[in-house]
Structures are given as C-alpha cells and as structure tokens.
Amino acid sequence: MKRSLVWPALLWATTLVASPAQALQVVATLPSLAALAREVAGSYAAVECLLSPRQDPHYADARPNLILSLHRADLLVVNGLELEVGWLPGLARQARNPKIQTGAAGYFDASMAVLRLQVPGQVDRAMGDIHPGGNPHFHLDPRAAAHIAVALGKSLSTLDPAHAAEYAKNASVLSARLRALAAEIAQRFAALPEAERRLAVYHDSLVYLVDWLHLKQVIAVEPRPGIPPDPGHLAKVVATVRTTGARALVQEEYYPRAASDQVAKLTGMRVAVVAGGPQFSANQRYEDYVRGVAKTLYEALHGGP
Ligand SMILES: [Zn+2]
C-alpha cells in the first residue's frame, strides 16, 4: 500500500530535476566510466553515476535511489568482468527497464572494449583472481579508457542516430587525448631506475597500470582478492617487500589502512593511497584523476617529485 504511493511521488520528483526530455539518460556504475561517458556524450545526454569514488565497486550498497536511476536510463554503462556482480544484477532487475538489460542496445559493457589481462588459463593465475573473464580493474589505464571512449561513441550513436556525428567526434578527440596522456605519463615513469619500479598493492587492482607503466608488482596484501590478510600472509608480504626492495604499497582509499601501515612500519616502504575514481559529482575529468594517481604513485616510488 505504502509502496504504491511512494513510487509515483519519487518519479514525479525526479522529473523536475531531470534534463530536457529529449536528452539521453546515461547511468554508469563507476566514476571513471561516468566521467568518460560525460565527455563523449557532450550536451546530448545527462550522465549519472551510481557509485562514489569512496565506494568499493565490488560491494556497493543497494540504495533504492539507484533503482530509480536505472529505471529511467536509456544507457547503462558497466565495468563488466563481474566487478559489479555482487550488487548490480539485483538492482537492474528491480528497475524493470528492458532497455538496459544485458544484451540490449542500452547495455554497455566496458570490458568488451579493452584488452584483458589475467584471463585464467591464458595468463598468470598466481594471484588467484576471482574473476573468470580476467582482471576487471582496467579503469586506471588510459589506453583502455581510449578504447572505451570509442566504443561509447558507437553505442550513443546507435541510441541517438541524430547526433551520431557529434558522438563520433567527441569520442575520437577524447581517445586521442587519452593515448597522448598514456604516452606522456609512461615517458615520465620510464626515467625511474629499476630499483624504484617495484610496488606492492593492497587489492589486485593495478595490473593494467603496472603493465602500462612497466612496473613490477611484487605481492598483494590480500592473499586472494577480497580476503583480508592473516598474520602468516602479512609476514610473507613483509619478507617479500624486504627481499625485493619494493618502494610503495598502493591502495584505493576504500580499503582498510591498518595492515598496509603495519607493513610500511616494518619495511620503511611508503603507503600510497589513491582515490577510487574521479570526483564525478565535482566535475573532475578522468584525465585529471589519472594524472593525480600517477603523481602520487611516482612520488611514492621515487621518494619525491
Ligand atoms: Zn577486484
């Protein structure tokens, strides 16, 4: 009884703040994807993001307002490779929107556009990745983002053919900038001596960045993705860091700090905490986010600017 009253009221309230009726409604799961979609869509779509950069994308809270966003979306942009499998499918079902169901024209899986790493059976399984299609954490690699931008341009053009030329132009300009950014940052890291290229991570979420910048990941604080470290594994992390001389331990801001701080204290390595994505709600661009992460990482590895 209560529900039937609440729903129309919520729908009515959101129509008031929505953009012009003709604009496409795009909903992305991660801030990085939302920021890319906003640049490719330009003024022809309203882009919303389901998660904040402070939320771990593996285990997001299923808040009811997310269902409403999904209910009125024309395009849903997901990371894919099961990153959102713990929370998104249930929300998408409850949203009752056929346009954005898996396989529909309004369902965009970013992982389909990127060159995947750590695909089980194909690449190194030593890290025990839980995602059978490959490691899903490609959002920090601007080379992957360049591919995603182009694919987003095609999806938006299919949904809104009247503005296909603009989407294609935006996508091509953005992907060129992202490739240039990737080259510029890689060049900076190329100057680092071998001894300053080794890092540890909290979660196994930097493999694409490590590949892009020719770094070396020596170990993860989590013994397996999503599993907190026990004392035995922490001792192994400390030993590995000492043997390899890894300089930095990198983790997203939503992971607990205690284990990393303990390792840092015992080894003298630096903990580099990075944001989980651009501040989408404050209009931060993807490129500025990546620059910020690269700067934090470089300084942690090198011991200064
Ligand atoms: Zn993960």
3D architecture notes:
The protein contains 10 helices and 8 strands. The protein is an alpha/beta fold. It folds into 2 domains: 2-181, 3-Layer(aba) Sandwich (Rossmann fold); 185-302, Nitrogenase molybdenum iron protein domain (Rossmann fold, 3-Layer(aba) Sandwich). The strands form 2 sheets. It has a 4-stranded parallel β-sheet with strand order 2-1-3-4, with helices on one face. Helix 2 links the parallel strand 1 and strand 2. Helix 2 (31-41) crosses helix 5 and helix 6 (164-190) runs parallel beside helix 10 (286-302). The longest helix has 27 residues, at 164-190. The protein starts with a helix and ends with a helix. Residues 1-6 and 12-21 have low confidence and may be disordered. The structure holds zinc ion. Zinc ion binds next to loops.
